[in-house]
Amino acid sequence: MIPAARPTTPRDGGLPTGTGYAPCHHGELLQGVFLDDDGRRCAGLVTLPMAGPGSTAGFTRRPGTAPDALTVVPAGRTKAARAAALAVAECARRTGTPPCGGDVRLACDVPVGLGMGSSTSDVIATVRAVADSYGLRLPRDTTAGLAVRAELACDPLMLDGRPVLFAQREGRVLEVLGPALPPLVVVGCALGGGAPVDTLALPVRDVGDDDVRDFERLRTLLRRAVADGDVRRLGEVATASARRGQQVLRHPEFDALTGIARRAGAVGVQIAHSGAVAGVLFDPVAPGLRHRVRSCLRALDAHGIPATRTFTTFPTTKELPNGPAHRGVDRPAGPDTARRPARLPAL
Q: N or C: fewer beta carbons within 10 Å in the chain?
């Protein structure tokens, strides 16, 4: 759910400040190469939504200044800066006004480098803030297109939370899998000590026809899981996708994580295919859920795998065995490729 925008207020006697917000996610349930409606291969993913952390942006236009006269605070958010310039050009075109510079201010509590969509969250919040400063609300496909242009690939955080197979390099939906994911309880953790993953340094694997067939099979299973509300089948798909991702990521704790999930009675595991965040997935109606979750947390601690956040994919007022982590997480103001890893509070 997108928080209500704060009232826009003039700064320095100028125009009102537009505001925008975007959530994050908790890595992927499925990622691979799929076929679109025309039979063309497309890289695609299905993210695991998570309420809570996100990016908030404010944008104040400076009419009469050059379009490239943009400042971003904190400094170094180069993707957000590109997004602001692209959004200004789009909004100026739509309103018939000259493009101009302006000031972007970002606040974000999304852990960086864990594969939770921190860059996309910044970018989409910025695009929404620029549009709000023009009195516009851009269509989702337009926002997705701007996000891809700003960072080459993006997560589907501009959508409404429905499970979709999303072509992250093209900014388009390949398939809406259904109205909502089956309900899950997720015990989040960070592999590799929470160190950021340099996705550009990862080896690139050739994808053959057999690989595409396997990805399409997982897509079909996930579609059925969503249609039937089948938590166990969803867990099987997420685990299979995570194992494929492990061929590139090579997290040393992965086997321990799957063993912990099995012994705790979880339905499976999921990982970020471009980061270190991972989750142990539980059926919320399974008997002894609280005991299972506590057992999982103890086992993670015993294996030196930091637990981060236990959350649900559905609204709940019940207290979970461990509260939210990621509070007060620093996001340094350095360049996008050189941020410090997030601090991971022990729970």
A: N
Radius of gyration of the chain (CA): 20
pLDDT at 252 over 50: yes
| Residue indicated by tokens 């019940």 | 318
pLDDT tens readout for residues 183-217: 999 999 999 877 776 665 666 678 899 999 999 99
Q: How far apart are CA 316 and CA 20, in angstroms?
A: 26
State the CB neighbour count (10 A cutoff) for residue 248. Answer: 14
* pLDDT of amino acid 191: 93
Q: DSSP states of 133-147 as a string?
A: HTT----HHHHHHHH
Contact 211, 219 (CB under 8 A): no
Query: 209-228 vs 231-249: helix axis angle to the nearest 10?
Result: 150
β-strands 41-62, 18-35 pairing: antiparallel
pLDDT at residue 331 in the model: 35
Give the chain's mean pLDDT.
86
Angle made by CA atoms 105, 166, 128, in degrees to the nearest 5: 20
Give the span between the Cα atoms of 74 and 24, in whole angstroms.
19
Query: Any idea which residue has 């997705």 for tokens?
Result: 144
- The contacts of residue 122 (CB under 8 Å, 6+ apart) are 22, 55, 57, 77, 79, 80, 83, 106, 108
| Residue 99, token pair as written in the block | 């493009």
Q: Which two tokens stand for residue 140?
A: 């989702």
124, 158 Cβ separation under 8 angstroms: yes
Query: Do the strands 277-282 and 185-190 form a parallel or antiparallel pair, or are they unpaired?
Result: antiparallel
